[in-house]
Design goal:
The complex is a heterodimer. By secondary structure, chain A is an alpha/beta fold. Chain A is 54% helix and 9% strand. Chain A is built from 20 helices and seven strands. In chain A, α2 (24-40) packs antiparallel against α3 and α9 packs parallel to α10. In chain B, α2 runs antiparallel to α3, α3 (36-50) runs antiparallel to α4 and α4 (55-71) crosses α5 (77-91). The chains are: A alpha/beta, B alpha/beta. The interface between A and B is large, with 56 and 58 residues. The complex binds guanosine-5'-triphosphate (GTP) and magnesium ion. Guanosine-5'-triphosphate (GTP) sits between chains B (114, 116-122, 144, 147, 150, 199, 232, 260-261, 263, 286-289, 293) and A (108-109, 139, 191, 193).
Amino acid sequence: MFDNLQDKMDRVFKTLRGEASLNEWHIDNALKEIRIALLEADVHFKTVKDFTARVRERAVGLDVLTAFSPAQQVTKIVRDELQALLGGNEVGLALVGSPAVVMMAGLQGSGKTTTSGKLALHLKNRGRRPFLVPCDVYRPAAIDQLRIVANNVKVPFYEIGDLRDPIQIARNALQEARTLLHDTVILDTAGRLHVDEELMQELTTIKNDTRPSEILFVADAMTGQDAVKSAREFDERLGITGIVLTKLDGDARGGAALSIKSVVNRPIKLVGVGEKYTDLDVFHPDRMASRILGMGDVLSLIEKVEADVDRKEAERLAQRVSKDKFTLEDLRSQLQQVKKMGPMSQIVNMLPGVAGKVKDEDIDENAIVRMQAILDSMTKKEREYPQILNGHRKKRIAKGSGTSVQEINRLLKQYLQMKKMMKTFSKGFGARKFGKMMKGLPPEFLQ
Amino acid sequence: MAEQKTIFAKLKRGLFMTHTEIIEKVKESLTPDLPLDQSAIDGLEEGLLGADVGAELTALLVARIEKRVRDERVTSMERFTQVLREETRALVPQREASTIDITRAKPFVILVVGVNGTGKTTTIAKLAARWKNEGYNVILGAADTFRAAAIEQLQMWADRVGVPIVKHKAGSDPGAVAHDTVTAAKARNADVVLIDTAGRLHNKSYLMDELSKVRRVIEKELPGAPHETLLVLDGTTGQNGVNQAAGFLEAAKVTGMIVTKLDGTAKGGVILSIMRQFDIPVKFIGVGESADDLIPFEPNAYVDTLFE
Ligand SMILES: Nc1nc2c(ncn2[C@@H]2O[C@H](COP(=O)(O)OP(=O)(O)OP(=O)(O)O)[C@@H](O)[C@H]2O)c(=O)[nH]1
Ligand SMILES: [Mg+2]
């Protein structure tokens, strides 16, 4: 989260004592945190290196005595630099020529065919007359797929007949487009690996034949470090004019955007944000910057947790969960945190899979109060070592809290369930994924 | 023998691209007048990060290796590489190749899941070809009823490989397809059932619920099934692979992974984190687009080739 990064910055700069400007030591530590955040987002390690060098330059000698804290200032530099790298203002498609040719290229499974359909619809809605051309003769049923897509978005489709050569298909389709007065030809090419010499050559030939005014490199937002190699190779062979980033409706931080941008240096023109044909968006560098830093595009629940829950407490809890030391004592402090976040129904309805299904009356806000009461009536030792809770002790607690032994048993059962669930969630995640842990709160826990 | 040879060639082709770089990086960073533990580590770190091993695991590995190199006064690259391999292996729970024993049940039902475009359908064709060649009766189920021409795609593979397929109309209920596939498998006395599903992002709860439902339908039709639920992971995926594993594990009770597209330059290092955090074994890797481009995954060989 951005708060997270800023908190980290806060911690780093806490030890500033009366200096007038930031010193190397502080900056080094801040950059360490920034580096990890970027690497976790899959930004290429070289890009990260260059990026942090740039941030360092701007941060050295930064004025400490201003209205803004050093943490705020450095965080802002990071964001600004990131946003600047990702691209300035919106860049439209250059559609020149009659017809204008748009060539889609990229690795297998990156989303070229779906994006071709979305783009066709997008252009049609802006008054153009697109023509969809299938150049993928390799993947089984790829041609059928584009035909169906074309049909769904009601855009004309080039029937290849007996043709089996993508180069020939592209040539003929261009001819036909002229005859039929289509002003935009979209070439859906087969996915290929950048190391596949023969297929890369095929693309070069198609390019030379059809002279596209746009060659869009379609890349999956989930791509890791290899994004740099494939993007560079496609660019060197083809001269990419723009990038389309797909599957941004997932939860990938999308650092590949930055890596690709930094090697290809062409604008990210469009982003795919869903499986519907209308799920194509223009690129927003500011949003992408936040996303890479893990600051936006997260479940609002997590944001809420981040905002309301005491960070230190959250980290302590996550630590205990990952060490399998989560006790009733921790449950108690967690309940206090949960209470701070507001009405339960509001929180629960933010849980994936639950959204909209839980009504206010389903949730007994009292249940939490009662749980709290039970936990309060226990001794500290009982909360730390729940296994010592025998019948005798339970009776005492029931009396003290004005509840029943059954209720205590139910709470214990829920505690065990929750512990198990949290363990699965937190395994190896550490404090980072505290939000997920909150997600682990079973709905029945609240009734 | 000939077959042995082509498989070896493919493994080489596949993993050849995947390895060398880490050690290259280490060698690049060596400085003649510095001891190994000081000069090699930067290169090692970059190499691991570049292989998608991830910041967290890389830090862990680097710290352990650095310590050993110092304590044991390692001076040769050979020994350094050995330490690297040992430490990496020690961090990954999967030790042995984990195969799929389809004779465990009859019919043996496999559900194939994963995010969009990772290679599910192609992998199903590869698995079908493999088992068919071994003399088993294989049947496919086209439960991706959502993506355009997904059914046609699987049908074409079924024809190519020469195995039967159960399919419904596009847009129909995937649960019903899964159900009918299992029923048909029982009626025809099939040995293996491979069920294709639509690609879906693990953070979309309604789509994950649908998957849980398909699972339940299969379970109900044949208690104990699906006997394997395979997550197909794109080898070029970065750290999001961990989220994918978590999401599909929860909704579909994944029992194994297949990592595809390792015939390029991607190294698939995120599987180290996944295996470590969730203990899901990798069963096969995909190294191309033909039906025979599938290789059983050997954890030790993978670690070795990473650092060759
Ligand atoms: N190079 C390479 N390509 C592969 C491999 N496995 C699959 N592919 C290609 O990746 C693309 C997508 O594969 P599919 O099998 O259609 O993927 P899918 O997961 O079924 O896709 P959806 O059903 O659309 O989610 C195709 O072009 C395949 O040929 C592999 O191991 N190596
Ligand atoms: Mg498929």
